[in-house]
Amino acid sequence: MTAPNYSLVIGTKRYSSWSLRPWLLMRQAGIAFNEEPIRLRQSDTAQQILRHSPSGKVPALKVTGGPHAGLLVWDSLAICEWIAEQHAERQLWPLAAAARAVARSAAAEMHSGFQALREHCPMDFNAKLAHHPVPDKVAGDIRRIVALWRHCRSDHAMQGPYLFGAFSVADAMYAPVVSRFHSYLPSLAGYGDDGTAAAYVAQLMALPAMQAWGEDARRQETDD
């Protein structure tokens, strides 16, 4: 059997939202890779990460085979872009130019935005930690995400169950938000959801890859 051409350095699955994104994308695309897990929130976590990534953050993708062997990609969105480019046959961005532009905009907004939601509702993948009410800034982030998902789904619902029909980088980028909503917000109706966001959360949480991530997170807790 041919060894995978990739090794993905990731943090503890219970907490590492950034690691979930490329991990989920590669699993959904059927791209083989080795995992190099690093336990977060330990006294030597920073030292351990710096052994792999100059940024001092996870995830990091090591290209271990093929013409680009030795390459390191150390940002979640950059990793997703690399995978989409190198595996164009997987069609990890929408094919239509306009849809692709919107998908990239949505992914970039996730990558750089929603700081209040990140801070108030950190990813705790298997937890049930309902927060009511949330601060105004967090509520604003939630309403924006709900509206964005509704917009994407209204335009692409006929092509499949994900934001742009087929599973794409955009879905991988929002997977940690799906986890946060699942943990903290059992109902999104108060944030403008007409049922679209709730259905999308259920769709992503039911993915075998998301279930596998959750099982690994529980296993890591037991091992700790």
Describe this structure in words.
The two termini are 33 Å apart. The protein has 224 residues and is of the alpha+beta class. The relative contact order is 0.15. It folds into two domains: 6-91, Glutaredoxin (3-Layer(aba) Sandwich), CATH 3.40.30.10; 97-208, Glutathione S-transferase Yfyf (Class Pi), Chain A, domain 2, CATH 1.20.1050.10. It is built from nine helices and four strands. It has helices at residues 17-29, 45-50, 76-86, 97-112, 115-120, 136-156, 169-184, 196-205, 208-223, and strands at 6-11, 34-38, 60-63, 72-73. The chain has a four-stranded mixed sheet. Helix 1 packs across helix 7 and helix 4 crosses helix 7. 51% of the residues lie in helices and 8% in strands. Strand 1, helix 1 (17-29) and strand 2 form a beta-alpha-beta unit.
